[in-house]
Write a structure and sequence with these properties.
- The complex is a heterodimer of chains A (about 450) and B (about 240).
- Chain A is an alpha+beta fold.
- Chain A has two domains: about 190 residues, no CATH class; about 240 residues, no CATH class.
- Chain A is built from twelve helices and eleven strands.
- Chain A is elongated, with a radius of gyration of 34 Å.
- With about 240 residues, chain B is α/β, with parallel strands linked by helices.
- Chain B has one domain: P-loop containing nucleotide triphosphate hydrolases (Rossmann fold), CATH 3.40.50.
- Helix content of chain B is about 35%, strand content about 30%.
- In chain B, the strands form two sheets. Chain B has a six-stranded mixed sheet, with helices on both faces. A four-stranded antiparallel sheet of chain B has the order 2-1-4-5, covered by helices on one side.
- The chains are: A alpha+beta (about 450), B alpha/beta (about 240).
- At the A-B interface, helix 1, helix 9, helix 10 and helix 12 of A face helix 2, strand 6 and helix 3 of B.
């Protein structure tokens, strides 16, 4: 018998005892729904955690330092280039790192303590350059005002505590006001020929400068929790502006002993990777370029393991319902055999082979699996939507931002339907073999 | 239809035994039967109930396997065929009609008749044509979409006959085909079977316990009792 004929006969058989087969199919649907619900909850939570961690900027970032400056990570005895082979952290290095595969951006860490004036009152503050991608950081979820208009705008975002310091009466009033940063600019001294490089004696002058900044935003907490060499800064300015200011840095004093005098020299460089999973590869590549690196990779690795276990648990719980449903299929099909003894006998007598009979029962089981699977995915998705809705109502009431804790990826949809078909076919094994073994003479004995 | 050489042996039964064990006793339903059935012959197996005639028919139909001995149809010993080959034999070489008609109640007349062709993997379009042709032959061309329960007994048996014809078998087996019918309808069915026997040159083996019908329609009558053949009687060959 051809497959489409088996399917056609199977469908008509299923329609014959519609109620019973519908209930069985519904059982499968509930099983699949619980599986989908459990797994999509697991996936949703994993994505939520991933997103949080990614946005925290802690786990997708490699901090690059130079061994010439200091050994950031000597405890682990990693195989890193020694000081002699190590390269300096100059703009060329930044450019080189930013084109590595999977790197989103590479930015120098610019940070300095200096004096700022607000309304002619001086105070001391840490100033940090902030990359454009920082706008996605969690810290800016509750940003008052707005983020920098351009990567080199003369604008500043201040920490809420610092705003209070600037204007104790009305901290929010600093928005839109001007802030003056007074800093020391470093300018290389050219040699007599006008070449500022490759001469044995060189140096730089330090000049006092002022930079006016418009305060555009107030942020509650330190972006990246103060990680990424940001220290405890209170004033944040666009990274390109910070770089352009050419502020005298601690590393410059060490840099003066080196052979490439003209180049800028950073304390560290932050390299952002598109996926925490690829941090290791990027880190290795940067090490190969002759730098020292540091990342919080191990933390993400543990998180992944945790979620793999969580998903497995949720999957097992979800599968239990499907296992129960598959017993329902066995029951339904065995009943169908008892009911259709005579019919099976007739089919055998007029030329159905054992294979035809087996295929017919498989097709019936499979059809229930497909319909049950599709129904179950829909049901699971609906349950997910409902719980998502409930969660968000709760979160809103707690004055927290809403979250997507429920994610049903397409592979889960296909996988769940396929799984339910496989389970139903396995459930059909026993009834099908029983139907196959039916003796047509016994079945047709006149009643 | 598969042309059959009239008078050459279509079915050869040799020392055929079919024994059942029930507890300690052995029932010899078929007990050492030798029988040759010629191609195109209309043979009636006559006997009382329990004589083993239905068991013999089932063995010829390939529905049952002998305890020993052989049934050779078209040079193939059924005892040696695999179950898959037996199913093929049942689809292509023999078809059977029963006392209880054995139509599938959930299917229409047309679907019932089509069913053997599904197993034989006949193309859908051909299936339809052949089923209608067979139903025309049994004069039920107008009842295609009816369910078996909506038909009279005689009509149901005619559907069963049409179903037996569609795969164009060379042997038609009939197990008490008139047992559930009144005598007038029974005669109509047998007239139809004889027509098929004559026009299509089908070999017919019919099991019955109604002697007068056997004598009227069959070419040869074989009596069975206690699993053995008893006094074979040449039928009225001369009358035909």
């Amino acid at each position: 018998m051809k497959i489409h004929d088996s399917l056609e006969l199977a469908t008509r058989n299923l329609r014959e005892s519609f109620l019973r087969n519908s209930l069985t199919t519904l059982g499968i649907a509930v099983g699949v729904a619980s599986l989908v619900a459990m797994l999509s909850l697991g996936i949703g939570l994993q994505q939520l955690a991933n997103r949080r961690l990614t946005r925290s900027g802690l786990f997708d970032t490699v901090i690059v330092t130079s061994k010439r400056d200091f050994d950031f990570d000597h405890r682990h005895g990693r195989r890193e280039p020694n000081a002699a082979q190590s390269r300096t952290l100059d703009p060329a290095a930044v450019k080189e790192m930013s084109v590595i595969k999977n790197v989103v951006e590479a930015t120098p860490d610019v940070r300095f303590m200096t004096e700022v004036r607000y309304d002619n009152n001086p105070s001391v503050a840490g100033v940090s350059g902030l990359a454009p991608s920082a706008a996605q950081s969690e810290a800016f979820d509750n940003l008052k005002g707005k983020f920098f208009s351009t990567p080199d705008a003369s604008e500043a975002i201040v920490l809420a505590d610092f705003a209070k310091e600037l204007d104790p009466q009305n901290p929010a009033g600093v928005l839109g006001k001007d802030l003056t940063v007074i800093y020391a600019e470093r300018q290389p001294i050219s040699d007599a020929a006008g070449n500022d490089s490759d001469s044995a004696d060189w140096g730089f002058t330090v000049t006092r400068r002022e930079q006016k900044l418009r305060i555009v935003g107030i942020v509650q907490e330190q972006p990246y929790g103060g990680f990424r060499g940001m220290g405890h800064s209170s004033v944040f300015i666009p990274i390109q502006l910070a770089d352009k200011l050419n502020v005298m840095q601690g590393a410059d004093l060490r840099g003066i002993t080196r052979s490439s005098p003209a180049s800028r020299n950073y304390n560290s460089i932050s390299v952002r990777v598109d996926d925490p999973a690829r941090v290791q590869a990027v880190e290795d590549k940067i090490k190969g370029m002759g730098f020292a690196t540091f990342s919080l990779l191990d933390a993400t690795r543990n998180m992944r393991r945790f979620f793999a276990v969580l998903d497995a648990f949720l999957g097992i719980f979800g599968s239990l319902a499907l296992a129960v449903a598959s017993l329902g299929i066995v029951n339904t099909l065995v009943m169908a055999i008892l009911e259709r003894r005579r019919e099976i006998g007739i089919m055998k007598a007029i030329g159905a082979s054992d294979r035809d009979v087996r295929r017919l029962f498989f097709a019936e089981a499979g059809a229930m699996g497909v319909v049950g699977g599709a129904l179950g995915v829909t049901l699971g998705w609906a349950i997910g939507r409902a719980i998502n809705f409930g969660t968000n109502v709760y979160l809103t009431r707690q004055q927290l931002p809403t979250e997507h804790v429920w994610v049903v990826p397409w592979w889960l949809v296909i996988g769940a339907v396929a799984f339910s078909v496989i389970v139903t076919l396995l459930s059909g094994l026993y009834p099908a073999s029983r139907a196959t073994k039916l003796d047509p003479i016994q079945a047709l004995r006149y009643e | 239809m598969t042309p059959t050489d009239v008078n050459s042996t279509a079915i050869r039964v040799r020392n055929l035994n079919r024994h059942y064990t029930m507890g300690a006793t052995t029932i010899r339903a078929v007990d050492g039967i030798d029988l040759d059935i010629a191609g195109g012959e209309f043979l009636a197996l006559l006997g009382s109930s329990g004589s083993g005639k239905s068991t013999l028919l089932n063995l010829i139909a390939g529905l049952d396997r002998p305890t020993s001995g052989s049934v050779v149809v078209k040079a193939r010993d059924l005892a040696r065929l695999s179950s898959e080959e037996l199913a093929r034999y049942r689809r292509e070489t023999v078809e059977i009609v029963f006392q209880a008609f054995n139509l599938i109640p959930s299917m229409t007349v047309l679907e019932n008749v089509e069913l053997p062709m599904r197993f034989a993997e006949v193309e859908r379009r051909q299936r339809d044509d052949r089923a209608k042709e067979a139903l025309d032959r049994v004069k039920l061309g107008s009842r295609l979409q009816h369910r078996p329960v909506e038909l009279s007994g005689g009509e149901q048996q005619r559907v069963a006959l049409a179903r037996a014809l569609v795969n164009r078998p060379s042997v038609l087996l009939a197990d008490e085909p008139t047992g559930n019918l009144d005598s007038k309808t029974g005669e109509d069915i047998l007239t139809l079977i004889r027509e098929l026997n004559e026009s299509l040159k089908m070999t017919v083996v019919m099991v019955t316990h109604e002697r007068h019908l056997a004598e009227r329609f069959a070419q040869r009558i074989v009596f069975m009792a206690d699993g053995k053949l008893a006094i074979p009687v040449a039928a009225q060959e001369s009358a035909r």
